[in-house]
Amino acid sequence: MKIFDVESKLETNLKQLEFYYELYDKLESKFSFLIVIYSFIFLYTLELFKYFIEIKLEGWNILFTVLFILFLLLLISSLILTYQLQKPVDVYYTHEPNYFYTTILEDYKNKLNIGEEIDDDNEYLLNEYVNITYLQEQEIALTKNIKTYRKKRHKYYKNFHVILSALVLYVITSSFVIFEKRKENNSFDLKNYKEIINYLNSNKNGR
Fold first, then answer.
1. What is the rounded CA–CA span in Å between residue 168 and residue 41?
2. For residue 201, what are the contacts with CB-CB under 8 A and spacing of at least 6?
């Protein structure tokens, strides 16, 4: 079967290597998606932290505290995963084919004591040795790169779910703080309004 020929394996492995190099590059480019979410989250996180420090643990504030702590834990986990995702990893690259048909070829010629005059049998033998050596390096590269890609992909999808969960908690806690602050402002305005009315009434009575 042709699939078991060395030349066929070399061609198949080369396509697979190019495929995984491309997948790895695409995975690296997805970091921009995480940056957008982090930018959105950090817009109001400082206000949430201030509110968390100032509030008293009573009523709905207890629920807010629990959700906010959970949000912080998820955010920290996501940042750690993002660092691991972006941390440089050695991607295995094979030597150029020319290296095998010059350096490796000369090594085999020396090992097999083949001189400059090469007959057909020795030429076939050298070609097979060189091709098999190239094939072995391709397979080592494929094994390492597939393992590296799968690890990165697993971290990305794990991070994707973690950051989305953090985003949901961020929206909930932010909405709670915005609502509470608006309630405080309305209460303050109503108090001022009553004080102004009382002041005007006292002036009328004084006249």
1. 10
2. none
Amino acid (1-letter code) at residue 198: N
pLDDT tens for 94-145 read 878 788 878 888 888 888 777 777 777 778 888 888 888 888 898 988 988 8
pTM: 0.68
Residue with the two structure tokens 């040795």: 129
**What pLDDT does residue 203 have?**
52
Band of residue 193 on the pLDDT scale cut at 50, 70, 90: very low
Q: Which residue has the tokens 């991607």?
A: 91
Residue 147 contacts residue 25 (beta carbons within 8 Å): no
176 touches 60 (CB < 8 A)? yes
What is d(CA 96, CA 99) in angstroms, rounded to the nearest whole number? Answer: 6
| Cα 92 off chain centre by | 20
Residue 120 to residue 89: CA distance in whole angstroms: 44
Joined tokens for residue 83: 């660092």
Q: Which residues contact 81 (CB under 8 A, 6 or more apart)?
A: 155, 158, 159, 162
Evaluate whether 91 touches 21 at the Cβ level (below 8 Å). Answer: yes
